[in-house]
Amino acid sequence: MRLMSTTQVDRLDTPTSRVAPHVSRYASGSLIASHTHDTLQVLYARSGTLQVHVRQHVCVVDPGRAALIPPGMEHAIRVREDTEMASLYCSDAALPDEFRSVAVSPMTQELILRTVERSSEHAFRADRHVHLLGLLFEELRTPALTIPRIHLPNDRRAARVCEEVLKSPADHPHLERLAERAGASPRTINRLLRRELGLSFRQWRQQVMMNMAIDALLQGASVSNVAIELGYTSVSAFSYAFRCWTGVSPTAYGKPQNNHVIQ
Fold first, then answer.
1. Do the bridges between strand 57-61 and strand 3-8 make them parallel or antiparallel, or are there none, so unpaired?
2. Tens digits of residue pLDDT in 32-57
3. What is the band of 184 on the pLDDT scale with cuts at 50, 70, 90?
4. Residue 77 buriedness (CB in 10 A; 0-12 / 13-18 / 19+)
5. Domain extents for the chain?
6. What is the torsion angle, in degrees rounded to the nearest 10, for the CA atoms of residue 108, residue 109, residue 112 and residue 114?
7. Whole-angstrom distance, CA of residue 121 vs CA of residue 82
8. Cα dist. 17→82, 205, 252 in Å?
9. Cα–Cα distance measured from residue 185 to residue 163, given in angstroms and rounded to the nearest whole number
10. Could you tell me the CA-to-CA distances from 262 to 57, 60, 69 in Å, in that order?
11. Residue 101 belongs to what H/E stretch?
12. Which of 33, 58, 60, 200 lies most in the core, judged by the most C-beta atoms within 10 Å?
């Protein structure tokens, strides 16, 4: 792991909660080993991209998404790009006690960043702090939509194939090559994925592609450009696949919105 810098700022207290902000910068390729926290963590990437691994699930954290990690939940973090990571460690915040990845609205992004920035200001007014955190927690408590998150298999061989895809999801690797590296045949990998996740390798990889699409759309990319980047022959074909996985049109992520929960 290559930690570039870290900043611990003053804890913030309100009548109903305590929040300890923390800012760190990590280089691309860093791996934060599996660990837990005593309090709920709101994890956000001001820049760059992270993958948060929780049990048999993976979610992406970037400038368009934040992860809520309950106290005591073991998790690891893989840094895909140079990242400035902002964390809020929250006690008694009345947030859901379950792991979730939230596609945050522009307002929620600003609330997270203002909480971190204002906590280091000596002249920070307590009454403003109470209102700021109250609004932030309300935004995180009330997501509007749910979309699939990435599931991982337990079998070592199938998990290795999936991990290789997640390292470079845009590379379009062939299953034959990945299976050979994992010490199994393509047929075996497909059988294992269907047994554990109910998906073929192609279907599982499409799930990864849909998560990439959400990343791009949240960053302001057009639907047509995302469709081309992911190799779809038409916008309509991409939109149909996107709706099948998420339940909504890709245009829902291309404009200001309420928070969305990624399950």
1. unpaired
2. 999 999 989 999 999 988 889 888 88
3. very high
4. buried
5. 3-142, 150-262
6. -110
7. 26
8. 32, 40, 33
9. 17
10. 11, 10, 13
11. strand 100-103
12. 60
We find that the CATH architecture of domain 150-262 is Orthogonal Bundle (1.10)
Q: Where are the beta strands (DSSP E) in 1-70?
A: 3-8, 12-13, 18-26, 31-35, 40-47, 50-54, 57-61, 65-69
Q: Which tokens go with 181?
A: 């590296």
Beta bridge partners of 21: 88
pLDDT above 80: residue 77: yes
Helices (H), the chain: 106-118, 126-141, 156-167, 175-182, 186-197, 201-218, 223-229, 235-246
Backbone angles phi, psi at 204, to 5 degrees: -65, -45
Question: pLDDT band at residue 127, thresholds of 50, 70 and 90?
Answer: low
Collect all residues with Cβ–Cβ distance below 8 Å to 159 and sequence separation of at least 6.
152, 153
What is the number of other CB atoms lying within 10 angstroms of the CB of residue 244?
10
Q: In this structure, what token pair is assigned to residue 76?
A: 């690891």
Average pLDDT over residues 21-39: 90
If pLDDT is split at 50, 70 and 90, which confidence band does 155 have?
very high
At residue 145, the pLDDT reads: 52
What's domain 3-142's superfamily in CATH? Answer: Jelly Rolls (2.60.120.10)
